[in-house]
Amino acid sequence: MRFAHFWPTSSEIPKNFEAWGQSIEEASGGRIEVELYPAQTLAKAPQSYDAVKNHIAAASASCRQPGPLLRAVCNGRRC
Q1: Where are the beta strands (DSSP E) in the chain?
Q2: What is the pTM of this model?
Q3: Contacts with 21 (C-beta within 8 Å, 6 or more apart), sequence order
């Protein structure tokens, strides 16, 4: 499972992603392997939604920003 995010590996935030990935691997008995792609190596931050939509990544993390995902989640309302 590819997981893309934009934080650099020197940041504290990716440590949470590493722990999350390990918990997924353990809970699945090793059937799901989580591959982390930090620092926009798989997709640039503004294209995170499209990377998941187009099956380049299975999941991504990004900061809240106006775009297709936010519009879809908010269903046209102000979030």
Answers
A1: 2-5, 35-37, 59-61
A2: 0.76
A3: 3, 34, 36
